[in-house]
Amino acid sequence: MRLNHFFLPECAFKVPGRVYARLIEWNRSEYALFDAVDADWFDGENASSLGPLTTGLWLSLSTGALVYAIEINSRLGEDLAALEWSGRLPTWLELQIFEDEHGPANLYGNINGPAVRVRFSQGGITPHVLSSLKRVTDLSPYAKSGDELREALPADSVERVFVLDVGQGAANALVTKSKKVLAYIDLGAGVLADTGTWPAAMTGICLKDDPVVVLTHWHYDHFHAANKFTTALNRTWIAPFQRIGPGPQSAMASSIAQNGNLLIWNGKGILKKGSDRARALHGIDRELQSFRDRHMGQWAEPPRRSNLAAR
Predict the structure, then answer these.
(1) Confidence class for position 84, pLDDT limits 50, 70, 90
(2) Are 181 and 299 in contact (CB under 8 A)?
(3) In the 8-state DSSP scheme, what is residue 112?
(4) Could you give the CA distance from residue 14 to residue 184 in angstroms, rounded to a whole number?
(5) What secondary structure, in 3-state letters, does 53-79 show?
(6) Could you tell me if residue 273 is left (phi over 0), alpha (psi between -120 and 50 degrees) or otherwise beta?
(7) Neighbours of 98 (CB within 10 A)
(8) If 74 and its partner were Cys, which of 30, 53, 63, 148 is the partner (CB 3.0–4.6 Å)?
């Protein structure tokens, strides 16, 4: 099983001097999360590659990449508006990193923590490097036709939706009348500062029926349970056509592509197989969020008017 060190239960790491980072979560002046890769490591791989780095080659390398998550959070007493950025944060950055116990950010070299407090300064990414970063994080080569995606969908009817308690994360099982798990909509877990929300009683998930995993989006807390129960990485994953970061997001896509079957869907229209349907993935996520709010942690009938992945 190929798994990046970032996802291992425990892993010591060295604070990098410089990273290339992509902004993957942003909430005004309250929260920012960057998905990052060691810039010196990336530059070395980019220079040693015969020709431009491609998505496929990058994903074959990124299970061994030096990757990080960098979080700035108002819970740490930091206001993003007080940092050097004005207006909207840039999507791609080069950051010089300095270990500083009074710094404004938490740097994670492991998804379970602990973090190291750091400060940073922003540098400019050269056009050549930016072009390489955008190219290797483009999931277009894994985009599949409607026929291939329909073939991956379960054909049985969904009787119930089971909402799993995974802490601050999302995981939902689509189950038949005979209690066969057809699919998971997300397979997440509490991560980073929320790692402690993972319930101690959650010691396994049902994978014996070879369920497909439908990922609504590439946030860590929507896929990390698969790194706890790594057999899940051997399954077929249907994931949205979104630009991912060069750090842990790329490492996760790499784990799926190398251990299982990664199918990328652009989320347009409706995929239908027999009586089952899959609508746009963000629609699924909104429906399930509403469903979780009403029926958290219990067996329940799906809503009658639903955009769930299977019906």
Answers:
(1) low
(2) no
(3) T
(4) 35
(5) CCHHHHHHHHHHCCEEEEEEEHHHCCC
(6) beta
(7) 12
(8) 30
